[in-house]
Amino acid sequence: MTNNSLGLYIHIPFCQKKCNYCDFYSVVPTEDIKNRYIESLCSEIKKWGERTARPIDTMYIGGGTPSLLSEAELTAIFSAVRKNFSLTKDAEITVEINPGDKVAEFLNFAARLGVNRVSIGVQSCLENELCTLGRRHTADDAGAAVTAARKAGIKNISADIMIGLPESNSDTLQKSIDGILALETEHISAYILKVEEGTPFDKMKINIPDDDKTAEQYMQLCGVLKAAGYEHYEISNFAKKGLMSRHNTRYWLQEEYIGIGPSAHSFFEGKRFYYERNISAFINEAKTVFDSLGGDEAEYIMLRLRLSWGLNFKDFENKFKKPIDRRLIDKAKNLEKHGLCCVDNHSIILTDRGMLVSNTIISTLLGVIYEDI
Ligand code: SF4
To answer: Whose CA is nearest to atom 5 of ligand 1?
Structure first.
């Protein structure tokens, strides 16, 4: 990535059916809504392209379900991006897909348009779990999606897996991990199921593992993936050597990006802002809402601690022109005694166990130095 470069995120807020756990912003589209949305999206892309000449070296089309787009719709998005921004030659261009439907056809035209990385929502390799989650595909569909991506010439593939699922245990998780490993993807993202307010799971009486059992599942997953040659480079992300997600790493390194679409967030020229979670508002008058200034010390510490290389004291000093607060290092040394992090003269790095409770650790450490604020 060049210092001056930007990331570009494009949100496709369409799903054919809501999964039982999901609180991402998406709607079931009609043809008319899709047409009007693509038109608005392209004019926002143009607006942003006129606002900045900075090159784009990572682009991520997420959702929702981008694989519901037709060839004409995806082509329109790519044309708008290429016409209004300068995409670097080696840009990482990712698209999210859900297995099933017509993914083979989608991946063929996506690859022709320049997509070189695909993120597949596998979630589980057990049919009963997919059914409980309300997913619309089978475990075999996930394998077919990977094969289709490889056939289309896409070499960098990521698979999502969820842990802490209803009625799951270490045996069911192992079966699901084995299924994911058999896909031989370059990257795996793992998410702990959280029952979000307002989702179908919130209203259903589901039986999810307690915190201790979920912690065991997380440690099991970390151990198995590491043994299979994946580097645990961020709390929820594992990659084969050199194949970390460049786009997502940009978020954790506080590098700037523009997000376009309802619910998409941006960090641009030092400010954080977002579009409302409302497709009609976006179509009628797309406007961003100011969120906060970004890039401060607390945010830097919080984001660096998510990564496997942790919080480096020299890097902090170079960026903020002052040494890291000694009290934070002393507090981290206490946490080290409980196996939650490793501290030396250069950095603080969370262990796998620490990553599992990263929110608590980060607020404990930040509380030490910002208690007066
Ligand atoms: S497909 Fe993805 S975005 Fe759509 S409802 Fe399911 S989890 Fe949510």
So the answer is: 18
